[in-house]
Amino acid sequence: xxxxxxxxxxxxxxxxxxxxxxxxxxxxxxxxxxxxxxxxxxxxxxxxxxxxxxxxxxxxxxxxxxxxxxxxxxxxxxxxxxxxxxxxxxxxxxxxxxxxxxxxxxxxxxxxxxxxxxxxxxxxxxxxxxxxxxxxxxxxxxxxxxxxxxxxxxxxxxxxxxxxxxxxx
Length: 169
Fold this sequence. Notes:
The chain has 169 residues and is an all-alpha fold. 70% of the residues lie in helices and 0% in strands.
């Protein structure tokens, strides 16, 4: 999508907080109403980028039980666009990158959990799909954000292995 690519290019040049909708639409060669037909603001556009470019491609892998491959795809995708994500991770406050990412991950995991019949009605009443998805979203988001802030010096395969080690111990 042109708006997403324009936003990502602008984010590599200046702080996301300072990017205006006009700048995004001008760079994309569209009029402002086009932006508002799709998004409320630039933070919703960032959420769309995270959902469609990072998380959506992992869904078939997760549904097939290929979680390692899904994690590797997440880290590889982020690293391939490292300049943008290193700028995006600097977003703090109400619309922080971390908050948006955590919500996106939790939503996707909740969808996956609801799609698995065998998880319903087992275990402790506190172990709801919502709590489970939140737990994994917080842990995954912590690793992703820390990795980005650390300059992504650890390769995607290695950070995938590290995450798996942490989550299983």
